[in-house]
Amino acid sequence: MKDKRSGTQVLYGLLPEQTADLQGGIWKSVEWRDPIKVDVDEAAIRRRLETEILGWTRDVGAVNASRTLDIEVVKVNDSRGVKVERYPEIYICRHCRRVESVRDRNCACGQKSWQQSHFVGYHECGRLEAPRIPRCEQHNQVRMEYQPTIDASKILFKCPICKATLQRGFSYRRCPCGRRWPQRDSHALAYTVHRSASVYAPQSFVLINPGTKRRIIEITESGGPRRALTWVLNGMREDRPSERQHTTSSLVDQLVASGVSRAVAEQMAGVAASHGELTSEDDLGPLAAAPHERLLQAEREAVDLALATFDGRVRIQDLLSDSVPVAVRDRYTNVYPEAMQRAGLETVELADRFPVMRAVYGFTRGGTVPGAVNLNLFSGKRGRRIYADPQQSEALMFRLNPTLVARWLRQRGHDVPTAPDDRGTRAAIASVIDLPDRFNEHTGQPTPGSELLGLVHSYAHRVIRQLSVFAGVDRESLGEYLLPSHGVFFVFAAARGDFVLGGLQAVFENDLQTFLDAVVNAEHRCPLDPACERNGGACHACAHLGEPVCGHFNRYLHRGTLLGPNGYLRLVS
Questions:
Q1: Could you tell me the superkingdom of the organism this chain comes from (predicted)?
Q2: What's this model's pTM, rounded to 2 decimal places?
């Protein structure tokens, strides 16, 4: 069977052991034929996979075991495609409801009009099985009564000849793996329609992927994470971190990355400094004395920012040219900055070649709650396999005003060091941020990290819900990428659905002020209040987004974070 699908449709709809509706039938994906290896930052992929495994299993041993395995990241080979097979091989006569395992012959009623059964058996271990259908011992026939619901236990099997009731529901079948469902207290397979999310739920993450290792090398050789961090703290004034003159520490980092010992690197940096070839050492402020993990987190997010904008970004001032009409010039020089200020934003920029990669590393059966179901990882030839869809899309980057963020955190009872300027404030904020695990909703006393993640995440969701209207696309055609330590988030165009490339650019160039005013002033109450407010202040009617748009399982969201009595946007007015 041949059919055509986009790369993203294949990524989420035709993964190994996944069923799909194709050309009027139900098929199971067997394998991706000769997939193409994707050039990625292996260290970043491994680090992220280990985080995902730990988030699902809470098993440090499983993480340690995975470190000895190879990891390959692949994308679909368009010329070879995906091998599929019909599944399950259970067919029901549309005329008399008799059930057979073949469809190339006439039914006993004389008709040849078969429809495939939608029901499958599954277990959290990853097993998928065709249900076993009982047959009348005397007449060797069976009829499946009309099924008006997806409740498999209500299916009635009868003999079409003697009318005897053979069975209600599918028979008990113990999974060969021998494991017991934690939530069901049973070893048996469960049965439902194949398209149910409980049968197959892909587990994925989004990663900034520059497309080639050359980008990673360029970032590393230009001074590494420390230089990227100082670039971000300084407001990203230059196009890239490499355009900033070296300091002693960034030159040492670059030399060490190229294979020079640290002692020799420090001597060489000292010589360069004595000849006036280095700029003064960047002051990290409170971040210099912060725990190492916080500094490492800030550096990693800074590298992500550098990679995300490496191929170019468009700032408001870049829109100005001699040919711009006076009215439009006023919009860019006055109206846009005023709108960003009202929205509590330091800047909004366009990344027209945003290098993002959606990666699926495994699947679950029986649910999507981390810790409640088993995570099934994909296997490759020599270790773990990750299926990916690398894209270069357009994105809008939103950077929150650091002064307002610091004031908002202090207002909520958190101790954020004071600083004389924006650069110091950015460092002060990053110095107190420990980001919580995305797999578990933070409980107990709020921390600066959980509060800032909630602010950035809630803002991103509100932007996506408004931006989909202004760009004229479905919300599922957009994605989010959060960098909370620096108060930054990206909203990017995902190459799925009916999204037309250029929609975000059009909003950025023509309607940014109207769009930002809608973010601030549009209705923020929930139609399901007061129930929504009593149960977290975020639900599908006001703040939630569908998967895989939201990588945080719609956690760390609250409408009041932005527009409540002490909301972030209230500080602006």
A1: Bacteria
A2: 0.86
